[in-house]
Amino acid sequence: MTALSRRQSLALLPGVLLAIQASRATPVLAATPLNVVAAENFYGDIAATLGGPLVSVTSILSDPNQDPHLFEASPSVATALAKADLAIENGVGYDPWMARLLAASQAPTRRVIDVGALVGAKEGDNPHIWYDPRTARRLAETLREAFSGSRPEARADLDARAGRFTAGLDRLEARIAALRPKVAGMPVTATEPVLGHLFARLGLEVRNERFQWAVMNDTEPSAADVAAFEDDLRHHRVRLLVYNAQATEPIAARMRDIAREAGIPVVGAYETEPPKTSYLDWIGTTLAALQKALLGEGKG
């Protein structure tokens, strides 16, 4: 976001906050859904799954055709956050605009969940923490507690919803455990470290990490790193290339094209949950695509 657009966005906040403060002075019925705003739609999906009719969820990053790194927050995002009872951010430096807007919109009763902090991730770590189901499990536990605290009369329903979601995570974990012995140690590469946490869970050997981090951080990979990447692809030193399907960097597209020419399987990865799916199905589909690419089995 440019300095000018940031000032323009934040300049609108005082008027928004006055309107919100006035609305908060009006008594709210206990049955009114909790307003949840999630920076990313996969966290919004988990919140909606856990909360059901008790929550009204707004997800900010939800377009699978948009590069999340180029996102610029609009005044409507500031307005939604000002009304939120609970906000969810990824943290780990992935969505810094969220922290700025939260700081600008003072809402004393609003709770903020930093998912990175929940799982012990820190600035400089791979921020794509949602691709590890353990992250979703920790968030689900936190949301269940938060929703139950606000709506104790619905605790039984919330516990049931959490139980069903946790059972789905258990199935994902079982698939990871079954796949790991078959693929551990296999060399793979990627244009960005989007699936880095899932690679680690599967025990894969990840190559060209300096290239991946350079592209993710919008810097130019070194000539040596580019040459090493191309060499890995052309000489079949890797079994798979994962390509960030939401990114637009020419150097990443070039690596994808070289992989295809060399007959290296290419799997597209997304930083936004695709439409008409769920977190559990999305991660499950990604696992299936990796399994097919690496072993030639299962559905991709």
Order of helices and strands: HHEHEHEHEHHHEHEHHEHEH
The CATH topology of the largest domain comes to: Rossmann fold
Based on DSSP secondary structure assignment, what is the total number of beta strands? Answer: 8
Number of helical elements: 13
Provide the CATH architecture of the largest domain.
3-Layer(aba) Sandwich
- Percentage of residues assigned to helices: 40-55%
First-residue to last-residue Cα separation: 36 Å
Q: How many structural domains does the protein architecture include?
A: 2
Report on the architecture of this protein.
With 300 residues, this protein is of the alpha/beta class. It folds into 2 domains: 3-172, Rossmann fold (3-Layer(aba) Sandwich); 184-269, Nitrogenase molybdenum iron protein domain (Rossmann fold), CATH 3.40.50. 53% of the residues lie in helices and 12% in strands. The strands form 2 sheets. A 4-stranded parallel beta sheet has the order 2-1-3-4, sandwiched between helices. Strand 3 (86-89), helix 5 (96-104) and strand 4 form a beta-alpha-beta unit. Helix 11 (223-234) packs parallel to helix 12 (250-262). The longest helix has 29 residues, at 155-183.
